TatD family deoxyribonuclease
Amino acid sequence: MTLIDTHAHLYLPEFREQWPELLERCRTAGVTEILLPAIDSETHAAVLELEAAHPECRAMMGLHPCSVAANFEEELALVRRYFSERRFCAVGEIGLDFYWDKTFTEQQYSAFHQQIGIALEYGVPIAVHSRNATAEAIEVVRQYPGLRGVFHCFGGTLEEAEALIGLGFYLGIGGVLTFRNSGLDKVVAATGLEQLVLETDAPYLAPVPFRGKRNEPSYLRHVAEKLAEVTGKSLLEVAEVTTRNARALFGLAPE
């Protein structure tokens, strides 16, 4: 059984000294590839170092909406430079976040639109962060026919899920699915597997039975098991479909 973690911040300092052990646990759990969303210029070196040292890790490049500030144009210039020099599996993570602070709302929209432009220019998907802004982010991506991507850590309504699937987007399903009363189980039961990919968002949002602890990609199996339960599919089918989806979306080579 093969699983792909489409969103994990394994390059953050709390993981740095444990990469070999963490990745060995991933292999034991069947997690064969891990995609690394960038946050801002302070994380670029660590993302690229982890990718270079461990080829099962694949880098994205982008500016997180929570890192959008007065200097966001300088940050976007760095993203553009990286894309001019090499290929990444996605522009990410990008989007809108209205949970923490709305000071730079206008700049968040500008950064989102500009990075969508980068994705279209280089023919790669986007990984969208949309905390407290799912409806607004859907309205942005709706403006770009042919745009591909995933709404990472999806926690929206069935109507929002159906809107995204109708646009050809995938839904990133993580530990929230295992949380009691999240409501996400009913959404994915209605949508089925065909537009879903798996993620951990490590170190955040660890699935039950590890909720409240530091998350890691080896825990992805718990998300897959819950997804099998709520969709009435076998664990093997969940693994096969979500892995196939991840390979198709991010242009990952078959094993």
Remarks:
- The chain has a mean pLDDT of 97.
- Residues 206 and 212 are 7 Å apart (CA to CA).
- Residues 105-122 form the longest helix (18 residues).
- The chain has one domain: 3-235.
